[in-house]
Amino acid sequence: MKILHTADWQIGKPFAGVEDSHKQALLRQERIHAIDRLGEVARKSGAEIVVVAGDLFDSPTPDKPTVSAACAAIGRIGLPVYAIPGNHDHGGPGSIWEQAFFLHEGLELAKNFRLLNSPEPLDIGAAVLFPCPLLRRHDAADPTAWLRAIDSARIGSKPRLVIAHGSTQDFGAQDLEDGDEGGTNRIALDRLPLAELDYIALGDWHGTKAVGPKAWYPGTPELDRFPKGSDHAPGQVLAVTVERGRPPAVEPIPTARFGWHSVDHRFTDDLALVQLEEKMADCLGTRAGEDLVRLSLEGSLSIGSLTRLESHLETWRARLLRLKLENRVRIAPSPEEIQSLTLRTSDPLISRVAGKLIAQAALDGDDAEIARVALRELYARLS
User: Are 189 and 167 a contacting pair, CB within 8 Å?
Assistant: First the structure.
């Protein structure tokens, strides 16, 4: 059987770190468009079903327009879609899955959707699904614990697919997703009867990751955070061929549109500004409104180069959906700038003030920062 494995859509994510409300709306809307893209991938790959391993919604209380948009997008997939609740959209009393509006929109717009809210085997004809839903956001119990007692003889020879949401014991504290807590929703893969299972479709980790020969995280289909490392590999879905008693064949397929980049740069001299320009050009090309950048800057620049940097920052803020800036760059006036400020025979007062500001700007603390600002203002007025 061929399936499309996806997770962590987190429809309705607010993207509170993005200041511009229009850009926030673009990011939220793109999560709906990502469903259409993964649906196209599912159909082209020959998938018979789509499996969503938790966190279809970003919260257990999405607003009504978000619910309607998500249900309509699921309906457009055209294939059966099976989902479990994750930690963001957990099940249980009062959850989104029990609310009248969702039930109405699901029936009207997503007749192909089925929520698996009970930990019990489900025979879907070509395979048997073993859902492990989360009924609360944080649970100390392993959601897959019930699988340790499955009766293999009663299941038959069909492919067996586990669907679960949580972190595995392969992850350390540094791997936890935002808002997660160590020790909760932990999945003990080594305690599962792996010989009796053919594929373990996981959700929660936002990058594509194999955590065993049969267990995979697909990651979120549209990126929602800055990369944590080279092995993060977000923005994909998994086309999986599952056969009873054989290792699964897993193919990651890209589905993301927006680029999330992390750029670290240290200025050792003014020429390093050109290197930063090249780094940013590699990230953005000629695009606008399609990228987000976490930019961390250190080192020092001359007054003129710092002014040029700020001009670049203004342009990048306009072109980017978000510029998350960590700017620790100091002013280091060039010899020519120091001379133009301190060797003013026609105005010795300015020369003395400039000299004191240059000395103060080289130190640490709030007074040094004020001196840097004053130095730039002075230079701009005299240039």
Answer: no
Residues 337 and 326 in one domain: no
The rounded distance, in Å, linking the Cα atoms of 259 and 293 is 8
- Asked if residue 244 and residue 292 are part of one domain, the reply reads no
| Overall average pLDDT of the 331-345 stretch | 80
- Apex 8 CA angle, 169 and 264, nearest 5: 80
Structure tokens at 351: 């020369």
46 and 65 fall within a common domain:
yes
Counting the structural domains of the chain, the total is: 3
- Let me know whether 189 and 308 are in one domain: no
Residues in the chain: 383
Measured CA to CA, the distance from residue 85 to residue 143 in angstroms comes to 11
Domain match, 158 and 38 both: yes
Summarised one tens digit per residue, pLDDT across range 266-309 is 999 999 999 999 999 999 999 999 999 999 999 999 988 999 99
Structural domain that includes position 361 = 333-383
Alpha-carbon distance values, 301 to 79, 267, 276, 289, 375 (Å): 57, 7, 12, 29, 13
Name the nearest CA neighbour of 334 among 369, 364, 310, 358: 358
pLDDT at 229 over 80: no
> Which stretch of 156-160, 314-318, 354-358 has the lowest confidence by average pLDDT?
354-358
Q: Are residues 21 and 160 in the same domain?
A: yes
